[in-house]
Request: fold
Amino acid sequence: MQISGAQMVIESLIAEDVSVVFGYPGGAIMNVYDEIYKQSGFQHVLARHEQAAIHAAEGYSKTTGKVGVAMITSGPGFTNAVTGLADAYMDSIPMVVISGQVPMSLIGTDAFQEIDAVGISRPCTKHNYLVTDAADLPRILKEAFYIASTGRPGPVHVDIPKDVTAQIAEYKYPETVELETYKPNVKGNLRQIKKAVDAIAASSRPMFYLGGGIINANAAEEVRELVKMCNIPAVETFMARGTLRVDDTNLVSMLGMHGSYAANMSMSETDLMIAIGARFDDRVTGKLSEFAKHAKVIHIDIDPASISKLVPADFPIVGDVKNVVNEMLPLAKEKVDGERYASWRETVANFDKLHPLTYEDSDDVLKPQWVIERIGELLGDDANITTDVGQHQMWAAQFYPFTRPRQFTSSGGLGTMGFGFPAALGVKRGDPERISINITGDGSILMNIQELMTAVEYKLPVINVILNNKYLGMVRQWQTMFYDKRHSSTDISLQPDFVMLAESFGGVGYRVKTKEEFDAALKDAIEKNVVALIDVTVNRLENVLPMVPAGGSLFNMMLEYKDK
Amino acid sequence: MAQERRVISVIVMNEASVLSRIVGLFSGRGYNIDSLTVAPIPGSKYSRITIVTQGSIRVIEQIIKQLHKLIPVLKVYEHEHLVEKEMALVKFPVTECLSDIAALCGAYNGQIVNVGEDTIIVNVADEPHRVSNFLKAIKRFHPKEIVRSGVVAMEM
Ligand SMILES: Cc1ncc(C[n+]2csc(CCOP(=O)(O)OP(=O)(O)O)c2C)c(N)n1
Ligand SMILES: [Mg+2]
Reply:
């Protein structure tokens, strides 16, 4: 079939079973947008900023497990999208991002809206392509989807010059991918797996350290089974929230900088860490030399470069987490006796009794933690949660009662303010039956507020709960604690009227100062099924606790902060 | 941690941006490149890149893993027993003692390769540390220009 490069893009996306593309048009990508106009194979959602288009595709991918697709134009369209690419790269989200480029004859001439897009995207994508011949397009797009979704997932960027989208060439979408140089290793080494299970059986204070890779690998079911079978306590990273159910007796909450006392103490005392799909981020480990100092380390990960990168593994197992855990299950059943760890479980439970993850509620002012707990009580499993970045994000991870993988979508690796709302649009588009709640801050929400228009236009009724402390709260917290309360440029009490703001876009706004008002607003927004901003006034100077100061050891937590 | 010098060979697809991926990886992650040579492997669609680098064992291990992760990388060898060679070109004023220079070149597998009105050019090809020695030894002949090729290596 002889068709244009632009038509090939459409045909390939349909062949990949893409049902939605988030994007924003412009000169260099117009040939493709012309074909989008003519087709009916997938929906195009016009975001109101390219960064938001990428975050929406990330949210869609996160909730569905499918490859997220976004489309943008050259120059400023592409540079606007870079934050999204970097975000997806850091959190290993499978994405294909297609950008227009100036015609090949103009590349290198500083043409209008020309920028070296593949040069910029190289360090923040898993792979990228500059397409120089339409005949290569089907193969490249096939490879792009394959690379994005296999091995350690990640974003792939395909840059297509305008003349290539106009060029007519032979189209046949390849059935298979032949990449001699890319063969992701999915099967774990069985000998090594056996040794690891033996080590578990011989240990006395073992600890599961569960990471986001489990969710990427769709392996939460298997991991739940393994944890249950071994009856070994487990901590989750921020990215792994929802791997275990909140009521799983072996779950010891989140670890790390804002992890619970029990999670951080048990990681400090364990004699065998079983790391699954986790990458020892510095926000997790604190001071590396003190991290799980007494522990032997089993490390299961699809990415060999993650293993022994920061903490040397005694039992490195490279492979797909789902595959490896499936191999472990029968071995564990035979060899591991949960009884053995009874006193260790008691020790861990005592840590939790000593300093449970909690906060002091108040009758005078709404506490942000209460708001999150309340959403959890009212909606629980029925809601998908996204967040922005800051204190509210940490409270959401600490206090929301997660019950399933892919319920929680947040920017972990890059920590991108402005992520939450557009990501929630993608989540709602991918999982329309569930309620989509974006827990956000008064700073973050303004970083992609224009997406109110997208949400209203495409009837994606996301409920934004703004935990409004009139501060860039997380930065303010550090200034309070470590900079002698010099709150430099973090007081943002000058604010728009969020109710009027929502309404001017055709959404609904609520102002909330009490518990009753909050319940009423949430209920109303859900009943009306509208795009909503709930502006919740919360205690201004609340701090996220416990806290391991940056670079400190996990066992040296600040459990409370007394104002001097 | 102790710094080690390592020679790493990377076999890559012969395609447009592959070198920038490799170099970008080194600069982005703060790894050293002492020297780097690239040339197509005859009769194949691959090129060989030879990189001389320094780092602790941990860093070297990461470099190799990160190189493996790049999509167009076919193989990465970290050499244990290898033959290493490097070439250097040096330009001298003809007024220097040419017979001494020629004799020195001879000791390092070299020769005079060009004679001009004012200058001569010599080349030597030897193990990298010997090339360094040669370059020290010829200092007193006031070399006007020195070009080193970077290392190529082959497993024994
Ligand atoms: C794009 C971006 N810029 C700056 C930061 C640094 N930063 C991290 S948290 C934060 C404050 C966020 O304020 P807000 O959204 O109100 O959330 P709060 O901490 O008050 O809950 C800032 C500025 C960031 N993470 N992302
Ligand atoms: Mg705030």
Chain B touches chain A through 19 residues (CB under 8 Å). Chain B has two domains: 4-80, 83-155.
